[in-house]
Amino acid sequence: MKATRFIMMFVAAAMMFASCEKENNNPAENENPTDNLTQTEEMIVGSWNETEALYIFTQGGACDTTSMFEDGESIEITFKADKTYSSVYHSIDGDTEDQGTWSVSGNIITMTDEFGPMNYNIEQLDASIFNIRYSDEGVDEDGPYSFEIKIRMTRK
Q: In whole angstroms, what is the distance from residue 110 CA to residue 119 CA?
């Protein structure tokens, strides 16, 4: 009788533990990467083609604007929901890949790769267009200067 009672209690306890759902102490495993994105970040996530990249240098009243692309060159960039990005630069000499992380604060997107962070102003962002601008200024032996990099992208 004691043995039967012990077996029944053991079976009941085993069923109780087996039916309990295991608690996941790592909530990141349960989250969808897009759950924590802002509306701006959600619009950025995806693949984009750079259609134009201009380098604008101004010094001493002179302004020089140069396209950063030559014939046959293009860049594809993919922003992922986990805040990483990858890009491929296509040229006649072959493809070059880059990767890094990205974040948004206000209207600034910061892209960080092996060379460090670059802060770009978000000029335009909608379902099909993403335009950003980097600017800096300084002084060299010829005096004060400023330069900008304007990048225009369309959704792939």
A: 4
